[in-house]
Amino acid sequence: MKETAPPRRLTAKGRATRARIVAAAAELVFAHGVARTGIDDVRRAAGVSASQLYHYFADKDELMRAVIAHQTDGVLEVQRPLLDHLDSFDALEQWRDVLVALQEERHCTGGCPIGSIAAELADEDPEARADLVAGFERWEAPIREGLARMRDRGDLRADTDTDALALALLAALQGGLLLTQTRRVTAPLRVALDTVLAQIRTHAA
Amino acid sequence: MKETAPPRRLTAKGRATRARIVAAAAELVFAHGVARTGIDDVRRAAGVSASQLYHYFADKDELMRAVIAHQTDGVLEVQRPLLDHLDSFDALEQWRDVLVALQEERHCTGGCPIGSIAAELADEDPEARADLVAGFERWEAPIREGLARMRDRGDLRADTDTDALALALLAALQGGLLLTQTRRVTAPLRVALDTVLAQIRTHAA
DNA sequence: AGGATTCTGGAGTGTCAACTCCACTCTGCG
DNA sequence: CGCAGAGTGGAGTTGACACTCCAGAATCCT
Fold it and tell me: Is residue A105 part of a domain?
């Protein structure tokens, strides 16, 4: 539980190795959770030795924080450019379809790359929690802004609380993913998102 | 990872000890998660010796399944009798208030007693997953039935998909709890629930 | 009562995970 | 070219954790 990483000086090779470690760790954490992912598993998967791992990260907590950042980037990357243009009913539906299709592909295993870490670490590691809050915010922002644009443009009534709807959409997504992961069926995710989308529609001008 | 527990014969004292172990384990798991809860912690908290623990449970997995059942009972108990009469807008709002107040009390720490276990075990232990599915179902059923009664009674239009709304409500609850736990603010839970409640209202006859 | 069974205490055992150490090799740069 | 610092390999240490064992006490049942 080191404070913050001293901004180390890294060569190109060093950056590559570090990235390889984080990517391997992220994948394992997504599949098995933080606690069940051993340093040694990461080590093997990344093809590095133990000393290298501790050369780049003070301890497991610090590595996990790097994983959170990596997964946040990943989530945003996958959903981009969709996420940047969530400003029409069409776009919102397309986004929903992509999310559902993604879970379908992975046979409903693995919940949200950020959400499942949040469930595990939010109450345990204050620094991780801060990073998770930041991660969710980076995710929520484009949704919020898309809805705001719809309102400003006149697609939604002027008195629409777009911030609330954006938050509700993110919550529906998280809850839907959890139930989908548990039940191994995409219906919960689809229904949860559809319900909030329907609610957004009731604010159409 | 034993199959199913052989239905052991227990005396009154045995049942009490077993219950004490499960209760202690449930509390620790709720606070720290499955992986971070050691058998020894449970042992100490329950005031029993190691051999007793393994006298009642084949292994940790089996204990965790008992915890899932215990938490399901607990969740239903806390929300009863509210949960059995979720058949009016008033009751739904009261229920929402209780849920929000509960998170407020615990300062937004600890997500859902079932949901957080689900996030950790759904992909890891098939038997636990089955129990979690059953637990969520026991939770969803009264919600579903309450909404169905509202429709049958004519409070909601006849073409209302009450099953979908019930599922959406549960998803909103789960997602709202996760975001509330992460952000340490009750707003996400409240907003998520309110949004689905508003959507239910649009189906008022 | 008394024999079978359940219940309990506590000292072990083996394994595995996180983390350390040190010696060696590469790389950037003046 | 040379050296300081970055990068690497792998054996080793420490502790925690799940689980076992066995002997003795309490309890049940006929």
Answer: yes
